[in-house]
Design brief:
With 138 residues, this protein is of the alpha+beta class. It folds into 2 domains: 43 residues; 86 residues, 2-Layer Sandwich (GMP Synthetase, Chain A, domain 3). The strands form 2 sheets. It has a 3-stranded antiparallel sheet with strand order 1-2-3, with no helix packed on it. Strands 4-5 form a two-stranded antiparallel ribbon. Strand 2 and strand 3 form a beta hairpin. The chain contains 3 helices and 5 strands; from the N terminus they run βββαββαα.
Amino acid sequence: MEEGRHLAIGARLDGAPYTTRLTMRGHTLVADEPLEDGGRDEGPRPHELLCASLASCTLITVRMYADRKGWPLQSLSVAVRMDRTSAQGAVDTRLDMALVLEGGLDVEQRARLMQIATRCPVHRTLLNPIHITIREGA
């Protein structure tokens, strides 16, 4: 995402315990909580969507870089694990990513793609200060 770009996401929760409809650029997604947490399990949890954003952005960024370089990256995948702990109001969040690169890449290409994976826009957003304001809207 280029600097200065703004995103707008709409979210609405009607009637169902936690089922939330998310809209963006004409697309619709659903977030929910699992049955054991009082939801209807109609979609991923919000934290799962956060991990999915990081995973997809990482793969897209690496794929774009490899394509621009003409490197023989056939496919790639990533598994993201989130561990969150809280104590005395402080939350410690750890994200672990296991990236698999498939194709005839040499050692230097693999190392460079692993560096590029840390530079995806979502990764950079999560590592830098995030300022959140909330207000009552109309």
